[in-house]
Specification:
By secondary structure, chain A is mostly helical. Chain A has six helices and three strands, in the order H-H-H-E-E-E-H-H-H. A three-stranded antiparallel sheet of chain A has the order 1-2-3. The A-B interface holds A 3-4, 6-12, 14, 16-17, 20-21, 24-25, 28-29, 32, 94, 99-100, 102-104, 106-107, 110-111, 152, 156-157, 160-161, 164-165, 167-168, 171-172, 175 and B 1, 9-10, 13-14, 17, 20-21, 24, 63-66, 68-69, 73, 76-77, 81-84, 86-88, 90-92, 94-96, 98-99, 103-105.
Chain lengths: 185, 107
Amino acid sequence: MNQIKTQLRNSLKDEGFRSFIIRFLCTLLILTIVYESYLWLTEQQRELDWVTYKVSELSHALATALGVANCEFSCFMDGCRIGVEGKMINVLEGCNGLMLALVYASYIVGSGGFKWSSLVQVIIGIIVVQFFNVFRIGMLVVLRDLGGDAYFFFIKYLFNVIIYVSILLLWILKPHVDHLFESAS
Amino acid sequence: MTLRAFISVITYITLHLLASGPMNYLLYINNTRDFFDIPIALVLGTSYKMIIAFVFMRFHKFDYGYILIILLLAFITRVVFHGPFPVAVLAGWFFLTTRSKDSLSNQ
């Protein structure tokens, strides 16, 4: 127990790590406030948020392009429904991948501070996360249409592993992007 | 990133998701979206996820101090901000493994 206490004290004395944690949490807090305010505003206007709508619309387009016949698409205040009648998928605000993108962004700012290269990486990261999210939902519509247990496996495991690993790959690329910006300036 | 580290990440994410799947299914059969409606599952699932994250970081020989802080960070990310728990764990892990090693007391 004493060993754990000593190690905890030493970790808190580690300035680099402490700065990372503080910057990570502050960035996440600020981005969450901005996002929640945006959600509150759209709710006041009795509308669905733009990100969820666009993710759903693009997923519907992908599913249609992949050959799902009679694929329907309808949106309400709390989310969208995509798919064939009787096999619809609900895309709610929590499915739009934005919270994942915010945590990704918090790491970028947490580890390197706020710089122009961080802003570029955050924007690229959000696009990549949304690309995988549209792919995930579009494929789910296709799998749901085909039927079987594959649907459950893909939604719970494979797509999540892919999306988390893609975030890790973006973090791996971070020093290279920083280096590119430093060379350019 | 080494192959060993990459495999450990994939294993960690998979083991984490093995708990998320049944927990989401429990939400579905209980006709709710709030985990506080199924408190026993919430406690068991959260403990399991914490243990898996702990083992993952111990595997990488992190000090208990760092592990506890990263677990707290991930817990705050999940409970306060509704963000993904494993991504917050991976953020802490990745920061510690990629920064200058001489500033780390445990490596």
